[in-house]
Task: structure prediction
Amino acid sequence: MPQLRKALTAAGFDDVRTYVQSGNVVLNSRLRSADKVGTAVRAVLADEFGVDSAVVVRTPKQIRDIIAWNPFPEQAAAKPATVQVIHLDAEPDPALVRAELAKDWVPDELAIRGLEACISHSAGMHGSRLQHAPLLKRLGVSGTARNWRTLVAVAGMLTAR
Result:
């Protein structure tokens, strides 16, 4: 993570911070578009580390809105590592969303809103029928998943700005 912070700073980003080894980065940018920030960060990853990885960007307001939305507050409070937020790179087709929400995922639960999907894994992710990679494929979008604990930690980094 120190090398990533250094590379992003050299590329013109300010106040670059990372959260443990999770791949989450909080930074300031002169770029005013989330798409432009994502493209620039992706270029740094490719140029400096030889990694071609999708980058999903959320603004501080979007992160706060996700936390306020929290469709599974009891589970997130009791077992935050079992609640997974999937940040989508595009809004999925509403018909595909309805199809996923209509499925019986018991004992797990699924909620989808805009650019986010949220899964509550009753007994943890391993062994669950509801996994984020197949869900993304069925929704026809890409994205990245973080557990609730990580999302809250990143939000805490944002409030320090």
